[in-house]
Design brief:
Largest sheet: 7 strands, mixed
Distance between the termini: 62 Å
CATH topology of the largest domain: Collagenase (Catalytic Domain)
Helix content: 40-55%
CATH architecture of the largest domain: 3-Layer(aba) Sandwich
Number of domains: 2
Oligomer: single chain
Radius of gyration: 20 Å
Strand order of the largest sheet: 1-2-3-4-5-7-6
CATH class of the largest domain: Alpha Beta
Order of helices and strands: EEEEHHEEEHHHHHHH
Strand content: 15-25%
Length: 240
């Protein structure tokens, strides 16, 4: 079968406030496949946005722009707080082959186009996923529940429109455990920041990245084991 390839490049320079944005766009149409790439640069950060889904290209222009704006707002903020050495070039890929909501590998976040079109208000999936790039833990750094709990804590702290997505942390229930991950663990972290030690999440994050985390880390940071902390949380889980 003959492959037809069309490449078009355009560069746009947009002045916005006190920064400049440079955008480079390319299109590729290979037989029945579809691919469109934008490169957007602001200050010292660059976002490569690859759309491999023709339907998203037709219907998702507003969602795409909100994803881009969310990236440039939250990623530098997360990096400033948690990891100033975070990479400055990130790729978003609209991936019709990915069946979940979103997933991060290295410097690339894969987004399910069907989910993003069906749930356009869930823009802070960006906030959660780019936190994984900031985390940069590598392999065998610690338990998955801790990694995901910190990422959802970041969504809670830095999210641009959690309310619009009707995203919130669940109230404490006796059936929960800190290992439940995501929002349940994130709420536990909010409580720890308020009631135990300010900055403890940043310290946990740092220990995971340096691969010094172990079961004793909790006691070293707070004077209590994680089980003791959870018991205290369970007895009075109120947060402001």
């Amino acid at each position: 079968m003959k492959l037809s390839i069309v490449l078009v490049f355009a560069i746009l320079f947009i002045s916005a406030g006190n920064h400049s944005s440079a955008r480079i766009r390319s299109y590729k149409n290979m037989s029945n496949s579809f691919s469109e790439t934008d490169s957007v640069a602001r200050n010292s950060y660059t976002l490569i946005f690859i759309d491999n889904d023709a339907q998203f290209a037709k219907q998702g222009a507003l969602v795409k722009q909100r994803m881009i704006e969310a990236f440039f707002k939250v990623y530098p903020a997360e990096a400033k707080v948690f990891n100033k050495k975070s990479i400055h070039r990130v790729t978003f890929m609209i991936d019709p082959e990915y069946q979940g909501v979103a997933a991060t590998a290295g410097d690339t976040v894969h987004f399910n186009p069907e989910w993003m079109l069906r749930t356009p208000t869930d823009i802070d999936v960006v906030t959660h996923e780019v936190m994984h790039i900031v985390q940069e833990y590598g392999y065998s750094a610690g338990p998955v529940w801790l990694t995901e709990g910190i990422a959802d804590y970041a969504r809670y702290k830095f999210g641009v429109d959690n309310a619009g997505a009707k995203w919130s942390m669940p109230e404490y229930k006796t059936t929960q455990n800190y290992t439940n991950s995501y929002r349940i663990t994130a709420r536990f972290f909010v409580w720890m920041e308020e009631k135990v030690k300010s900055g403890v999440v940043k310290d946990l994050d740092s220990s995971l990245r340096s691969h010094t985390y172990n079961n004793d880390t909790w006691k070293e940071l707070t004077g209590k084991t994680v089980d003791e902390l959870w018991a205290a949380y369970a007895s009075n889980p109120a947060i402001s």
